[in-house]
Amino acid sequence: MSTEPETAEDAEPGTPGTTRENGARDAAGEGVTDAQDAAEESAADAQDAADAGTGSAGEAGGTGTELSEAEAELLAQRIERERIERRKAERKGPIEAGAKLSGKAADLLAAVRAVESGEKPVTEVFAEPEPGPEPAPRRPAPEPVRRSQPVPAGPAGAPAAPAPEAVQAVRRVLAEGGAPETLAPRIAAVLGEGADELLRADPWQLLRVTGVRPEQADGFARALLGAECGPDDERRGRAVTVWLLEQAALAGHTALELPALAAALAQRGVPDPDAAVRNTVAEGEALVFQDALEQAGPRRGEEAEDAEERPVRVLAGLERYALAEESLADGLARLVNSAPKQDGPAGAWERAAASAEGSAADLIRAVASHGLVLHTGAEASLAEPAALLHAAHALGLRAWAATHSPIGRDRFAALLRRAAPPTGPASDADAPAAPVAGPSVATVAGLLAGAEGPGRDAEGALDLDLLVVLDAPQLDVEAAALLTESLPDGARLVLAGDPAVLWSAGPGRVFADLLAARICPQIASRRPDPGPLGELVSGIGIGELNQVAAPGKEVVIVPVRDAGEAVHRTVQLVVDSVPRAIGVPAEETQVITPGHGGAVGTRALNAALKERLNPGPGRFGGFDPGDRVVHSPAPGRTRPGHVVKADADGLHLSCAGETVVVPREQVEHSVRHGWALTAHQAAGCRWPAVVVVLPGDAAQALSRPWVYTAFGRADRHLSVVHGVEQALHRAVAEVPAKPRTTRLPVLLASQVPAAG
User: CA torsion angle for 302, 307, 313, 314 (degrees, to 10)?
Assistant: First the structure.
């Protein structure tokens, strides 16, 4: 009988799919995903799962009808809770697909039910909209403020700290209702002025705060209202409706179909879901849309009246994401429908393409004549956007690239430096003589905030001619809308990325929706990732977990039987085996695991790794100087770094060479130890060595995009701590990305013809 290897160099190189059958599995509840973790653990643990932009929305997925506790936990991290002004006066009649339905909410819901039941055809319920006004011009963005170091940390747009007297007033109301008084500062910040009076008048407003669930808000309401409190209370119905829509956004949906929302409301004990939705829409807290399931207009040989009876779907969503998705569609349509600015002498773009190779030449030619281009490929394909940027710089264009993470930014900047040609792409007399610019790379967040990149012009648009966005699958609808809205007229946008990775942590599936819409050129890279790791990950991308030859121990499998062994082997790999056998030090090795909670989640692994690599008392919120951490200044943004010191100002971090000061009150929610991450946190980054931990009870959390993303973070070496037996094969072969409900394809179809 063979024995299990003790270290990486003793393990048999190969593929995760070849591990032998294991014995006893981890106990139930260990190593679960974010969603499972929060459902089974305490409120404190659930809050911990919500911090640092974990991206559990994408990992947990969801349909919007059965939403998890972790999704609720991530709610406050992802929503900027601005109070919505009353919109009743604006609703005078129905409008076309792609915009809000209006009219009285009661009439709307009645019409919806009539259509769904077949009682009335669509043409009798939804009248043809009147032509609307010309679209408003792009909103100028504010002039960026260049920040000096150190940078005070905090989510952009976060509410100002509430006044002490306001916090105290909220604390008194919480005490009356038996709710934790520690919630007072957050409630005062979320609800704004008069928060105590609002909370007393509508106790279910408590649901707007991180981690509060309907049953907890119900208990608070009963304590305050007594006999007046009931499940049919209109205030409760509205609050639960908004809560469910916010949770759906956490799961990646920008809207929910009405039947799904009604079913979810019924599961939460709302006796009349239709009335709850009706009241929520009437109060301006949600919007309702009708989207045609097929494009409007008759097909060839089809009468117009028959085409008008095509089915529609009716959805509900939050205004924030509805407006972002509509703004994104408008911005993309502007890019596609307008010719890009003419740059340089005639033929300069073609000469630049002729000097490139393969699909890089195809990319340059496509960008020459189109305002929007999609580029797909894995890590090796980054050479093609690099070639495009060098060609654009040689042509005199103001060209920039933007990445998802600081690690990705620094890696691509290094690639640009290595690939820089000594001269321009053509030695023709008509060719521009401008020197090739140095690396012009920023993060998406830094570009939008004005902390990185070219800044803004006098009209508020980004001061550039070409923007190449790498890691495009990580764009949610809000970030993508801000980018497109910020582009000047005549600019070009290239969205580049690997379509097989996990989607964005925020709502939407922008890159996937655009690939499916086929409204612009799509250039697929023909550069495969090299070596055993490239072969393994490429196979996963098409649903195959292949055995690969790894003579240099590029891929190592470490089978484990239970949670304790998984933690032990992981620490052993990071601290001893990988440095000794592969030559990669612990600080350059990243651990990736499916979730935060359980016996083999990020919390347990980080605790074990800290004990070995940087033991200490954790004097400042559990952290010590030298701790490896990730800072999440906003949901979906992960900035790896390490702790420098702590003082009265807060926790001082070094993140990608930038000094960041996290105020004391924000440490708990925005900083976590970073030796172990989830796959969503690791997206957009790469490390020399990666240890992927697959505990036995993580089988249900695995999917092809998760495995592809986790395994694809390794440059030189991948160790797999394997305890899921054949579940890994099944996940790669049979479990695709969880679907998300979005409206972008419908919005685009009404404005941009398909490219064919």
Answer: 170
CA distance 24 to 7: 21
Q: Check if the beta carbon of residue 466 is closer than 8 Å to that of residue 397.
A: yes
Burial of residue 461, with CB atoms counted within 10 A of its CB: 0-12 exposed, 13-18 middle, 19 or more buried: middle
In sign, the C-alpha dihedral spanning 590, 593, 599, 602 is positive
The Cα–Cα gap between 398 and 416 comes to 15
CB atoms within 10 A of CB 464: 23
CA distance 99 to 120: 22
Contact indicator for 690, 590 with CB cutoff of 8 Å: yes
Asked if 441 and 402 count as a contact pair (C-beta separation under 8 A), the reply is yes
- Which of 201-210, 421-430, 700-709 is the least confident region? 421-430
- Sheet of 639-647: strand order equals 151-152, 658-662, 650-655, 639-647, 628-631, 671-673
Residue 340 has a pLDDT of 87
How many whole angstroms separate alpha carbon 700 and alpha carbon 36?
Answer: 10
Q: Do 451 and 461 touch, CB atoms closer than 8 A?
A: no
Task: Yes or no: say if 56 and 601 are a contact pair by the CB < 8 Å rule.
Answer: no
What span, in angstroms and rounded, lies between the C-alpha atoms of 546 and 556? 14
Does this model's pTM top 0.90? My answer is no
pLDDT per position as a tens digit, 138-163:
444 444 333 334 444 444 444 457 88
Counting Cα atoms < 13 Å in the Cβ hemisphere of 35 gives: 20
pLDDT tens digit string along 356-400?
A: 989 999 999 999 999 999 999 999 999 999 999 999 999 999 999
C-alpha neighbours within 13 Å on the C-beta side of residue 96: 15
Nearest of 228, 231, 224 to residue 203 by alpha carbon: 224
Q: Are 108 and 101 in contact (CB under 8 A)?
A: yes
The angle, 0 to 180 degrees and rounded to 10, between the axes of the packed helices 602-613 and 563-572 is: 40
Query: 533-537: long-range contacts (C-beta < 8 A, 24 or more apart)?
Result: 533/711, 533/714, 533/715, 533/716, 533/718, 534/378, 534/379, 534/380, 536/15, 536/711, 536/718, 537/378, 537/708, 537/711, 537/712
- What is the separation of C-alpha 95 from the centre of its chain, rounded to a whole number of angstroms? 30
Burial class (CB in 10 A: 0-12, 13-18, 19+), 215: exposed
Q: Is 152 helix (H, G, I), strand (E, B) or coil?
A: strand
Q: Which two tokens stand for residue 655?
A: 């993140």
Q: How far is CA 145 from the centre of its chain?
A: 26
Q: Which two tokens stand for residue 191?
A: 């609800």
CA–CA dist 442, 747 (Å, integer):
29
Question: Beta strand pairing status for 650-655 and 658-662?
Answer: antiparallel
What is the rounded distance in angstroms from the CA atom of residue 351 to the CA atom of residue 348? 5
Cα separation values, 201 from 178, 198, 228, 742, Å:
16, 5, 12, 35
Q: What angle do CA 486, 487, 492 make, to 5 degrees?
A: 155
Please compute the mean of the pLDDT values over residues 695-710 and round it to a whole number: 94
Q: Closest Cα partner for 256 from 283, 208, 288, 214?
A: 288
Lowest mean pLDDT among 306-315, 515-524, 582-591, 647-656: 306-315
Per-residue DSSP letters for 315-332? EEE-HHHHHHHHHHHHHH
> Is the four-CA dihedral 201, 204, 205, 211 of positive or negative sign?
positive
For residues 179 and 162, is the Cβ–Cβ distance under 8 A? no
Question: 151-152 and 658-662 as β-strands: parallel, antiparallel, unpaired?
Answer: parallel
Q: Which of 7-21, 51-65, 216-230, 486-500 has the highest mean pLDDT?
A: 486-500
